[in-house]
DNA sequence: GTCTATACACAGATAGAC
DNA sequence: GTCTATCTGTGTATAGAC
């Protein structure tokens, strides 16, 4: 009864996993078509230019993230719990095989990406930073947190720490490192 | 009277600048030979395989960093000043054109790098982390700092924050962002 | 040590049959 | 929508002249 998932979505699924691991430039149309049992020309039918594919990839990822963040806000009014849930969300994108956040990888590729794609990545980070800022602000206003700096700057610091933690953990083949740093970074937000 | 700088070193100079910007895989032998006024075959004479070039690149970068860190230790006994100098060192590798720390870029490329090269990158981060740990430990022992967590974990957090800050700042074409986050991260070490 | 020339693989992309 | 076939560019790397 269920419709077969359309090819464009499955292309994006495979492409995303590959890009999360190797980066945008190190993934080819053939890399993507192979696991799907189709030919690279078929991928071009759905995404004529690689830039098209890249933009669709980031947009879909950002939409998905937006939904997750919205869900967290609805699930709890506590800043502590919101931040913990935010950290949990990272666990869903990090894999032992080396996959990390799509946009963290693309940030590394940024200077080689088409400008239109780089802007999409930038928007992803803005989304995260704005959300974190609001969570910290709200926690401060309600008295749950006692921030020692502006919510904007602390949000930026937390985001940066998580980005860097993913890179460091992956480079040293030590996924546990992300957890340790992530937990500590959040604790810092609560303690500041 | 001064000897002409040997070609191998100049190759590494050009290669490093290019890799700091685009990453390892997005830099070709022709990209490197062009600015030097030679042909790509000449680069192969000095570094037969690209992996050879990559390893030399990271080793030289790490040696240079080791010297800088040693210099900082000799220049001041204060943890505060040492951390500030450490941040200053980042300023020498970050450029408005998009160049950031060589090993931060290579961390993004890690899964596509030859294993021997990845290990060299890992060593670079270990070097930084060990140094930072010692600085924090020393500052704590002397009473200058009051750490609220282990020096190891705080060093990891600081390193991760700086890594991430470089990526975020570059992605949004806002070099000033690195400064702000970096300063705040160091302040966190002093305040913990 | 640097050159020209070239081998070989693979990339993104397109044309046209089915 | 997917295929085969192909174009064109570029990458790493090597052979051999100078």
TrEMBL record, chains A, B:
SUPFAM superfamilies: Homeodomain-like, Tetracyclin repressor-like, C-terminal domain. Signal peptide: none annotated. Residues 28-47 bind DNA. It comes from the Bacteria. Keywords: DNA-binding, Transcription, Transcription regulation. Pfam families: TetR_C_13 (PF16925). Residues 5-65 form the HTH tetR-type domain. This is TetR family transcriptional regulator. The lineage of its organism: Bacteria, Thermotogati, Deinococcota, Deinococci, Deinococcales.
């Amino acid at each position: 009864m269920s419709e077969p998932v359309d090819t464009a979505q499955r292309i994006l699924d495979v492409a995303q996993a590959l890009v999360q691991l190797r980066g945008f430039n190190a993934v080819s149309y053939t890399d993507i078509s192979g696991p799907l049992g189709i030919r690279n020309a078929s991928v071009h039918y759905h995404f004529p230019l690689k830039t098209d594919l890249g933009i669709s990839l980031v947009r879909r990822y950002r939409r998905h993230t937006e939904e997750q963040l919205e869900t967290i806000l609805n699930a709890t009014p506590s800043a502590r719990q919101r931040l913990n849930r935010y950290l949990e969300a990272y666990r869903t994108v990090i894999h032992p095989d080396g996959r990390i956040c799509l946009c963290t990888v693309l940030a590394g590729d940024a200077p080689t990406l088409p400008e239109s794609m780089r802007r999409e990545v930038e928007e992803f980070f803005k989304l995260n930073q704005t959300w974190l800022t609001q969570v910290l602000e709200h926690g401060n206003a309600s008295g749950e947190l006692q921030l020692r700096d502006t919510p904007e700057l602390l949000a930026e610091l937390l985001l940066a720490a998580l980005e860097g933690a993913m890179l460091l953990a992956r480079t040293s083949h030590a996924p546990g490192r992300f957890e340790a740093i992530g937990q500590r970074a959040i604790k810092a937000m609560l303690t500041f």
